[in-house]
Amino acid sequence: MNSLADIRQRIAPARERLLKHALYARMGTLSDIQNFIQFHAFAVWDFMSLLKRLQRDLTCIDLPWVPVGDAEVRFLINEIVCGEESDVDPKGTRISHFELYLRAMNEAGSSTVPLLAALESVKRKSTTAQALKSSGVPAGAAEFSAHTFNLASEGKLHEVAAAFTFGREDLIPDMFHELVVKLSQEHAGKLDTFKYYLERHIEVDGGHHGAISLRMVELVCGNDEAKWNEAGAAALAAIESRIKLWDAIVASQNKA
Fold first, then answer.
1. Cα distance between residue 245 and residue 222, in whole Å
2. Phi, psi for 88 (deg, rounded to 5)
3. Bridge partner residues of 95 (DSSP)
4. pTM score
5. Which of 30-39, 171-180, 232-241, 243-252 has the lowest mean pLDDT?
6. Any idea what DSSP says for residue 190?
7. How deeply is 217 buried, as exposed, middle or buried, from its count of CB atoms within 10 A (0-12, 13-18, 19+)?
8. How far is residue 87's CA from residue 85's CA, in Å, rounded to a whole number?
9. Percent of the chain predicted with pLDDT > 90
10. Are 21 and 30 in contact (CB under 8 A)?
């Protein structure tokens, strides 16, 4: 394995399973969406740790400042950080995507208790593992985020870059967005912010972000065969982890 095409080929079967997952057909009611949001919120949270790891390693955040790495990749990382930490809500007020998601949870009537408890635990200097274990986080969400946090803190740079590029940016298909549009019409005022979040996700993550993310993987892997193999494994693991999260959400629906 020594190219982006090889990674795409390696992850193709898992990605196909993810995009055809039974979860999407199970999003027919407001209750289904509320349950999904409660699980998926942890993916919105842990995404920032992947991003911040990339910012730490691919840009300069130390003093004194010195130029680091590739300017296009620096631009990509800093632009994504800016958008994630200080985007705009429907009224044009600055807000992070995570805080926007919390607003969507409250609006939809989805419980924020486990998520906020985990955040408070981390603020009190607990490890993420401790926070996920002690805060009543749904098991499937806790397992997913534990994988992400471990990768962000312990993974090699090329592994983090590959998981970020192939495992995060386009895994909520358009058909899911269309379901939310329909449900938001049926439940006025309940899903407007969640729909807006999805629309911003589709808009902001599109275009040059995808192309430069691929360039980032090429730059960090270079001509190193071992790095390419490890990057492919990390991308596949990220998608498999997402499939397990989707499985857990479906299982929680079956218990309801």
1. 32
2. -125, 145
3. 87
4. 0.93
5. 171-180
6. T
7. buried
8. 6
9. 75
10. no
Q: How far apart are CA 99 and CA 105, in angstroms?
A: 10
Those residues with Cβ within 8 angstroms of residue 216's Cβ, 6 or more apart along the chain or in another chain = 54, 58, 70, 73, 76, 77, 161, 165
Alpha-carbon span 45 to 211, nearest angstrom: 24
Cβ count near 96 (within 10 Å): 15
The enclosing H or E element of 1 equals: none
Note the helical H segments in 59-138. Answer: 71-85, 97-108, 113-123, 128-134
The CA-CA-CA angle for residues 103, 23, 9, to 5°, reads 105
Tell me the pLDDT tens digit for each residue of 116-141: 999 999 999 999 999 999 999 999 99
* pLDDT 10s digits, 171-182: 665 667 777 888
